[in-house]
Here is the input.
Amino acid sequence: MRFVVVTGMSGAGKRTAMKMLEDVGFYCVDNLPVPLIEKFVELVATPNGEINKVALGLDVRADQPFGEAQGVLNKMRKNGYLFEILFMDAGDSVLLKRYKETRRMHPLSPNGRVEEGINKEREILRETKQKADYVIDTSNLLTRELKEEIDHIFVRNEEYNSLMISLLSFGFKNGIPADADLVFDVRFLPNPFYIDELKHKTGNDTEVQDYVMSFPEATVFLEKLMGMLDFLIPNYIKEGKHQLVIGIGCTGGKHRSVTLANELYARMKDHGNYGVKLYHRDIKQGV
Here is the structure.
């Protein structure tokens, strides 16, 4: 039997993940009282039973200390029950925005500020996140992208390292992205903006791509950048990093940075067992 415990930060998409697991054949139970968890597992783990895939949702709630649930899971593991932990996460600013949009109160701060509840919950779940088999950060995930991640892990059973890489082109004149972990400046390349037939096109157009990539420096830059990322990414994964934002910047964010970000995405998307997404922040600025 495959037994998955689904937990994580409130507002990070736990219930959506549970629904997706149900859609792929998991028997899903959400928020059982702690004293019933072990009994429930004993029942569904009966040899020759009809249920072979189970997902158990666990929330942090004010009326049920999460430490007690964690204690039950530790006891079950010692008693030979095998299970995986899927931890749903998102950045604090994203969680706060979601709470404001839904006008919900945080379960750990029903009469106070949502930020206080988020901070308390993150501290309570710190150890659980460290022990999780899979961490999915939904900060920048669309619903269909979350479904792809769930299928990746629980349907296709592919190796998963819980790292999502965002490649982001931008223009320096509009500011460096605040969430960028690594920033690379490609203004050393000739600017298509000064060529009349390319000025109003972007790095998504073949003519601009051909022009930018016609310079040997562009290819050398990509090769050296890939070499550095091949070194950095496994070490980021080893240290437990789940989100990596790589910014590629030029002056306006329409030509060189878009072209190089597209080229880097093409090289990375099937290169490793991590997720890669592509964004062009400033490509429509001034249009």
